[in-house]
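Handout, page 2. Input:
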Amino acid sequence: MKLFTRNASITPARKPIPLVQDSQGTPAVDLTKVESAGHVDLVKRSRKAGISLSKRGLAGIRAQAVLVLDHSGSMRTNYQAGKVQTLVERVLGFALQIDIDGVIPIIPFDSIVHPTVNVGVTSGAGVEGYQGVVDRCITGHMGLTDLGGALEEVRRMAQKTDAPMFVVIVTDGSPYTERGERHATHHATDMVIDLARYPVFLKFVAIEEVPYLADLDNMDPARRLLDNVDAKTFEDPAAVSDLVFADAMVDEWDTWVSAATAAGVLA
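Output:
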């Protein structure tokens, strides 16, 4: 990510969204209640996230966390090996520090965008409990990789959000649809460029090296309002420590906040 990059000829899509940050740096969700309910590992992950946020001056920041999951055929072994479930749990642990309502919308996609699954610590009122949610709710035919279609759903959310959005996108390859890889990558790239005009930070998490994501991360700054992408790779999400994962999540979010504020995306 290039620091404080702005293309002055491109304007924000909406009026600035207020940036809320608790002055005491407290987590968005009461971790003592989560721990008393028996979710000890989740709380450990969240506390490490708090350390990472503090190091970047982001303790107490509030956002809507969103998880976008690649459900294409090439991801089958990653689902079967439990890697996707592991990432859901790690992202939820991070989200407990920042999320405005403690619930993560999960958007699965392949050739189509599947219905959103709302995930939290406990189930009820339209929210799925996080434990085993992947095998329970994210199933069925695994098609191609229409990342652009999934990002269109993110944009629909961004058009009406009243909080900044922290969007984690889990994938293992470049976009690909029935119209071919070139069309699919152009569509996804156009969506990333347009989302730079919204209060949306995109954190790509690859389960293997994906050159396309590196291209997004290093895009020519003249093409978009500001740099809204960071990409990380975790071939084995269970093998990294909670602090390393949390540091990866927070990396470059602070510079996006500064750039988005300067560009009039955030207030």
